[in-house]
C-alpha cells in the first residue's frame, strides 16, 4: 500500500518574476522521505486531476513545493490565489526512463550501456536533474551534459578525471 503524504486543501501561489512557477507549498513532509536534491517522488491528484511520477522540490524555507503546470491549472480551472485539494502518495513504483532520454541514449552506445548498469537511484538522479528544468533549453543542455558524463562512465556526482 502506498504511503499517504498529503491530503488537504492548499492555496496556489505564484513566483512573482516573469515566467515564475505556480505551485503549492507543503509543510510536514518528514526528512526521511526526501531523496536526491531534497526531492520527494509522488503520485496522486490535484483537484481530481491525476498526477504520476511527479517531484516535490525543496524551497529555501525548508518546505517542499508541488509545481502545478499550466496544463493542470487549465483543466481544473484554477489559478494563483485559488485553493486546490491535494492528495499525494509517495511514489515507489518502478523507474520509468522518459522516451526523450532513451532516444538520446540510443545514439550513444557507451552512454546507454553505462546508464543501464546503474542502480535505479543513480538513474533517477540523472532523470530528476534533467527533467526538473523549467525551460526546454535548460533540459536539452542538461541532457547533453548527462550523455557526455555517461559516455565516460561517470555517475551524476562524479567529477571529470576522478
Structure write-up:
- The protein is of the alpha+beta class.
- It is 32% helix and 27% strand.
- The protein has five helices and seven strands, in the order E-E-E-E-E-E-H-E-H-H-H-H.
- The chain has helices spanning 70-76, 99-106, 109-117, 120-131, 136-151; strands at residues 4-11, 13-14, 22-26, 40-46, 49-58, 64-67, 83-90.
- The protein has a seven-stranded antiparallel beta sheet.
- Strand 5 (49-58) and strand 6 (64-67) form a beta hairpin.
- Helix 3 (109-117) packs across helix 5 and helix 4 (120-131) packs antiparallel against helix 5 (136-151).
- It starts with a strand and ends in an 11-residue tail after the last helix.
Series of H and E elements? EEEEEEHEHHHH
User: Helical element count?
Assistant: 5
Q: Helix content range of the residues, please?
A: 25-40%
Work out the strand percent.
25-35%
Provide the residue-averaged pLDDT: 88
Strand order, sheet with most strands? 1-7-4-5-6-3-2
- Main sheet, how many strands, which sense, barrel? 7 strands, antiparallel
Amino acid at each position: 500500500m502506498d504511503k499517504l503524504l498529503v491530503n488537504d486543501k492548499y492555496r496556489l501561489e505564484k513566483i512573482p518574476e516573469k515566467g515564475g512557477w505556480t505551485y503549492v507549498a507543503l509543510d510536514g513532509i518528514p526528512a526521511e522521505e526526501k531523496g536526491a536534491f531534497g526531492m520527494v517522488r509522488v503520485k496522486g491528484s490535484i483537484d481530481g486531476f491525476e498526477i504520476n511520477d511527479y517531484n516535490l522540490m525543496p524551497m529555501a524555507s525548508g518546505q517542499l513545493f508541488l509545481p502545478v503546470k499550466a496544463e493542470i491549472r487549465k483543466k481544473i480551472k484554477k489559478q494563483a490565489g485559488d485553493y486546490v485539494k491535494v492528495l499525494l502518495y509517495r511514489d515507489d513504483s518502478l523507474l520509468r526512463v522518459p522516451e526523450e532520454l532513451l532516444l538520446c541514449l540510443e545514439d550513444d552506445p557507451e552512454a546507454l550501456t553505462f546508464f543501464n548498469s546503474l542502480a535505479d537511484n543513480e538513474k533517477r538522479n540523472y532523470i530528476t536533474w534533467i527533467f526538473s528544468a523549467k525551460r526546454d533549453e535548460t533540459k536539452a543542455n542538461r541532457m547533453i551534459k548527462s550523455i557526455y558524463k555517461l559516455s565516460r562512465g561517470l555517475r551524476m556526482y562524479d567529477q571529470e578525471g576522478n
